[in-house]
Predict the structure of RNA pyrophosphohydrolase.
Amino acid sequence: MSDLPYRPNVGAVLFNAGGLVFVARRADFPNAEGPAGGWQLPQGGMDPGEDPRQAVLRELAEEIGTDKAEIIAEHDEWLSYDLPPELLGKALGGKYRGQRQRWFALRFTGQDSDIRLDADPHPEFDAWRWARLEELPTLAVGFKLAIYRALVPAFARFAAR
């Protein structure tokens, strides 16, 4: 499976006015009730030829029901993760070994009521909350842990102190 490509992807670290980060609980994870693994940042695949900056706003609208945000920073490199062996050939349509992601910090410009997880007929998330940036690594599934650890110092200047 190591000959499979990485799926091009974007991710959003969405900060509210108080410097907290939007996290959402995946509806399809078996451990969604536990503290680790069920929660994640919005992210999603890029369409062929799509600009990453446009893709991240589109993904926000699709996943959380709003694109009321402005990009305030972009991670200086693409970050990648590999799927664990038990998910290879199953997750991501079975076509990818993992994801190559461009991450953005965004400032939420709406109200909490603008966030609508039910905007999609098949919502990816079933709950959301605002969290401290440094909490992200404690929420990540193991195979995304290195990415979340990299995002904390990269976007710390926007976080609640």
